[in-house]
Amino acid sequence: MSLVAAALILAANAPLTVEVAGVKNARGKVRIDVCPQAKFLDDGCPWHLSVPAKAGTTTLEIPDLPPGDYAIQAFHDANGNDEMDRGLFGIPKEGFGFSRDAKIVFSPPKWKDAFFTHHAEQQKQVAALTKKKKEAELALGSIGGGGAAGGFVSVNSPLAQPAPRNSDGSWPKESCTVDDPTTTGCITPRTLHAMQQAKAAGFKHYVACFRHQDSGEHPKGRACDFAAHSSGFLNEAATGADKTYGNNLAAYFIKNADRLGVMYVIWYRQIWMPGTGWKAYSPQGGPSVVHTNHVHLSML
Ligand SMILES: [Zn+2]
User: Which of 68, 127, 151, 265 could form a disulfide with 272 if both were Cys (CB 3.0 to 4.6 A apart)?
Assistant: First the structure.
């Protein structure tokens, strides 16, 4: 009996102050969701709050949070239209961030990188909103509708020749050392290998790998875009035989992910990563953005 009583006393709720840093402007609202592990990355967490945005840092307070482990999801709804109702991460438009500044570069953050323990005493947490829209879109797009998507897989995909590995089975560290045959830049030996294997397997539509840009693997020579249309890159979603070509090519990279060293693949509003399989990918934009006109391949 006395143990139970002690537990009840320790379980007293306490205020949690959240400072959301990196708020771009004072338009709309800043919203936080304070989530236990079971609700992490969901739309609705048991504790949430919206206040008018303040440029720079916006401070919010949850007055009585029970002790426990939580992660904070912060979101700047600059046009104040409460779009979060359709899923906090469904439509990435503006800044968002997580407690402990958990990294969100190419996939959603992990619980272990974002959670903190709330004790029965007042405390403060900081969540910084992301600055790089592109990376945010990629990370959020991979959350998509939340559930696993249908995916592109085929038992009939041909097998690739494995890329060279270290004697302990790990991938050798590589940099942009090989002439990129598709552009004037460079690519890594593993990227070249994957591209040549795909070609040898019959995927001969136009390909472009190296590209100058701020983020992602193209400027590192570790990514290629494979046009779905037989005539090259077109600003329209592939249909018919061109779409089948993309389906088959995406399936080929998935089947050979381990042999080639694939980091992720994006095709037709879905993204494949080794840890998660195919998931919905839903940034906003044209065929190049939602990847309905090309298969994107990123390499380890
Ligand atoms: Zn790409």
Answer: 265
Handedness of CA 71, 30, 41, 266 (dihedral sign): negative
Q: What is the DSSP letter of 148?
A: B
Tokens of 213: 């840009």
Residue 64: per-residue pLDDT: 86
**Residue 3 domain-assigned?**
no
Structure tokens at 158: 């041909």
Nearest to 263 by CA among 106, 118, 134: 106
Neighbours of ion ligand 1 (CB under 5 A): 225, 296
Residue 38's domain is classified under what CATH number? 2.60.40.10
pLDDT beneath 50, residues of the chain: 1-9, 84-93, 142-148
The tens digit of pLDDT for each residue in 43-72 reads 668 888 888 889 888 888 888 888 889 988
Shared-domain flag, residues 132 and 70? yes
Rounded to whole angstroms, how far apart are CA atoms 231 and 185? 23
Q: How many other β-carbons are positioned within 10 Å of the β-carbon of residue 115?
A: 22
User: Cα separation of 298 and 300, whole Å?
Assistant: 7
Domain hosting residue 122, numbered range: 11-141
Whole-model pTM? Answer: 0.55
Distance 224 CA to ligand 1 centre (A): 6
The residue type of 284 is: Q
Identify the pLDDT of residue 96: 74
Last residue of a domain, one of 114, 141, 168: 141
CA of 167 to the centre of ligand 1 (A): 31
The verdict on residue 112 lying in a domain is yes
| pLDDT number for residue 262 | 95
